[in-house]
Design a protein that fits this description.
Length: 60
């Protein structure tokens, strides 16, 4: 079950990346919307990683 969830998340990530590239080349409106969501989520995840503080290597 866990493997299926991970494969689904990976599939969504790849789909989002494909939409970002396609939108840069002038894709349809729905592709631009998916690309905007993908970029927005990436920025949210990036900023949440920076605000946690501490080492990302797990050294305590």
């Amino acid at each position: 079950m866990t493997v299926l969830v991970l494969v689904g998340v990976l599939g969504l990530a790849v789909f989002g990346c494909v939409c970002v590239v396609w939108a840069e080349r002038g894709g349809p409106t729905w592709v631009r919307a998916v690309a905007a969501v993908t970029v927005g989520l990436g920025k949210v995840l990036q900023s949440s990683g920076k605000t946690r503080g501490g080492s990302s290597r797990g050294d305590d």
